[in-house]
Cytotoxic granule associated RNA binding protein TIA1 (Gulo gulo), 345 residues
Amino acid sequence: MEDEMPKTLYVGNLSRDVTEALILQLFSQIGPCKNCKMIMDTAGNDPYCFVEFYEHRHAAAALAAMNGRKIMGKEVKVNWATTPSSQKKDTSSSTVVSTQRSQDHFHVFVGDLSPEITTEDIKAAFAPFGRISDARVVKDMATGKSKGYGFVSFFNKWDAENAIQQMGGQWLGGRQIRTNWATRKPPAPKSTYESNTKQLSYDEVVNQSSPSNCTVYCGGVTSGLTEQLMRQTFSPFGQIMEIRVFPDKGYSFVRFNSHESAAHAIVSVNGTTIEGHVVKCYWGKETLDMINPVQQQNQIGYPQAYGQWGQWYGNAQQIGQYMPNGWQVPAYGMYGQAWNQQGFK
């Protein structure tokens, strides 16, 4: 039905000299506009606006005609507004609406972000691929600084797939970014233990083991465990040097080329669902070979049953402490490489 189709456009990357009157003058040449709302970012980012048409067909024509056009010397970005005013209003809370939206859409993990990259930056970078329902750079709750990754959610699966294929390895800011499907994370069970368990941040996790330790233990995949599955799951976090899988035991070890990549992987993958199994991730055991990499660079710490590979990092008390809840990222609702229960805000 016409009333249910979007009629509002997002217009970004505008010059600070552009006014609502100018936007209305330009877009009204394509079809009658209902209103225009200009948003001036006090943080110094480029302004943007929302243009609402009376009819969907005029909005669609404006999207096709105006995206990439130059207005006052700047190439503007035009896309469907992420929350079109033409959508039916929901009487439930905004949190419920946001959670429902995230369940129905398709989520892309974006890793290796430069510290200066903002939510608006990744939103603008991925906007050309289709309608975005949400975008977010994950930040540390304590410091407010970016954790180096984020998520972009699309209305359509094809748009998300195209974004993953096209944006992987592209430069955003000063780094080449990584893209992959975000891993769905189920709601954590409500329990007294969990409510009293502190959720560790990246800074805490990265300091749990020495800088020479680049190995992640991933357990709980009691069926369907393969090297390919582990590579697909962990590759967004950095260069993988080695993977060892033990399908009969339900766990694996992944060695990265850097301690920081391994820390990001622990924070992000722990507690997510892989092949229907909620997994546990923490540091692999530090061996003498890790501390002296010149002597032996390719060994990974494995459970005691495998003899020379040693045992899991930490003692039994530490394993008990970390495994029931583990490290989770305080970021997104039920989804993502590390989305918790707070939901999209």
The longest strand covers residues 146-154. Residues 83-103, 185-198, 288-345 have pLDDT under 50 and may be disordered. The domain at 2-80 is CATH 3.30.70.330 (Alpha-Beta Plaits).
